[in-house]
Amino acid sequence: QASKEAEEMAKAEEDKRRREHERATARLEEQRRAHEVEREAARVQREAEQKRAQEEALERHRSHEEMLRKNKEFNQQMQERREKSQQKRAALQEQHAKNWERATSMLQQVHEQIEIVTDGWREAPFWDDFFRTSSASGRFSQLGFDHLQPVLAAAAMQPQRRLLVLEPRGATLAERLAEEIRSRTAQQAEAQQYGSEAEGERDFVIEFGLLDAMSMSNVSQGLEVSKLAALKNAASRMAKLVKPGGTWISISAVPPALHVPLLGRLANGMFALPSESEDAAAGTHAIVLPPAAAAQSKTGLRGAAQVADMLLYGSESVHIWAYRMQRLDDSASDLAESSPSPSAPDAGLLDIIR
Q1: Which one, of 278, 284, 286, lies nearest residue 319 by Cα?
Q2: Distances (CA, A) of 313 to 132, 253, 281, 308, 318
Q3: Which residues of the chain have a pLDDT value below 50?
Q4: What pLDDT, in 10s, does the model give residues 27-78?
Q5: Are the CB atoms for 308 and 133 separated by under 8 Å?
Q6: Where do runs of H (alpha helix) occur along 118-216?
Q7: What span, in angstroms and rounded, lies between the C-alpha atoms of 95 and 83?
Q8: If DSSP codes are grouped into helix, strand and coil, which group holds residue 22?
């Protein structure tokens, strides 16, 4: 009996172990199947992500190619527009050049006819109206030693000579020119504004636009007498500043046909007068001031100043003049002052001023 019970207990124990093993095996199998499902799901997800990434990369590539194509088309269109614009601008510049060439020819012919009609610009109001519109006053700043060197050479300038550069009040050219002259020719060159110069005689006085500023200033008719007095005082001052045998060089934008008669009225025999035509040997030197390179490179009409320059000078280059006058000795000056004049000098000078 005991043996039978032992066998039954052993069998029960074996069944128990078998059931537990089966349950453990079932659990493991379940876990394995769950792991397989997870792995399969991960594989599917991974493949889906790879496919999506490939599709996105392909779409980016297509977008990039489309962008490059559109950019290329845009650049081609812009290039075509630029070429058309350049061709149009070149055609316009060519047309402007032809128009300017015709206009220049016409203005030069008008300039020549005006010179004939006005007898070399002797009609002062006519010339003055054009001058105020021209670019001449702005070109004065271009003046330098190289422009004056022929004038100083003709006046036999020597390094030891005393020289004064005189300009109107408010001007800013004299100091620079005096410095250039000191470095190139005369070591005793000074610069002053009119009215502030020291007493004493000089070998040379270069007067820059002083008479122009006085004679061409805008004044009413009632102030012409005071203008006349100012001009006479300036001429008398020049006679005191320039020693006998010395030289007064008057730099002026006024042409010889107008300026020399004015100098003749003012000098009153104290200075030898220059020529009424451009003649360097006779004391009248022409100075040509071309337009700036930037303006010169642009072909075509650019405004009233350019037209006025063409009418006054026959080109875009502005002309100014240096009038070289030697101071006569006192005996010659006294003789000239004592000689009677056939006409009223003040009235004649006022006519020149007008």
Answers
A1: 286
A2: 14, 11, 22, 8, 6
A3: 219-221, 294, 296-299, 335-344
A4: 999 999 999 999 999 999 999 999 999 999 999 999 999 999 999 999 999 9
A5: yes
A6: 124-133, 136-139, 145-154, 174-184, 210-215
A7: 18
A8: helix
